[in-house]
Amino acid sequence: MAVSLGGKSGGPMSEINVTPLVDVMLVLLIIFMITAPLMSHSITIDLPTANPKTKDEEVKVPPLDLAVKEDGSLYFNDHQVTAAELRAQFAVNAQKVPQPELEIRADKATQFKIVKKIIGDAKDSGMVHVAFMTTDAPKG
Questions:
Q1: The domain containing residue 106 runs over which residues?
Q2: 68, 81 in Cβ contact below 8 A?
Q3: CA 122, CA 127: separation in Å to the nearest integer?
Q4: 99-127 burial: b if 16+ Cβ within 10 Å, else e
């Protein structure tokens, strides 16, 4: 704040010194005048194109159905199999292109360690797509 150095009143001056404010505004104006044209330049980038196939054109591969009962018995595509036969089926189906999805339907009371072993066997065989099937929630 500016202070009066003489005069009869001896109190502070009520006028604001606007010179520093004008200096700052001119500097900002110059900066924006220089940078504004730079913001309007666009950079061209070659973006990758999406897969041209639509969902209707894709090859439909039937999923592999695996049912696991409470006692640990396994049913691969509605045929009872052992754990060794299941691993062999995983190895065969993992080589297919496109790879079918493995849909696991486990009984509500099935122990998780059984399902975890099945998922580990599928992963070791090279299966990539694994899904869990559930029932719809009751409506109403």
A1: 64-132
A2: no
A3: 5
A4: eebbebbbeeebeeebbeebeebbeebeb
Contact 74, 111 (CB under 8 A): no
- Provide the whole-model pTM: 0.57
DSSP state of 61: -
Task: Say if 9 falls within a structural domain.
Answer: no
pLDDT, tens digit only, all 140 positions of the chain = 555 555 566 667 778 888 999 999 999 999 999 888 777 766 666 666 666 665 555 678 899 999 999 899 999 999 999 999 999 999 999 999 899 999 999 988 889 899 999 999 999 999 999 998 887 766 65
Report the number of distinct structural domains present in the chain.
Answer: 1
> With the C-alpha atoms ordered 90, 123, 103, 111, is the resulting torsion angle positive or negative?
positive
Beta bridge mates, 131: 103
Residue 44, classed as helix, strand or coil, is: coil
In this structure, what CATH number is given to the domain that contains residue 70?
A: 3.30.420.270
Let me know: does 66 contact 76? Beta carbons within 8 Å.
yes
> Does 97 reside within a domain?
yes
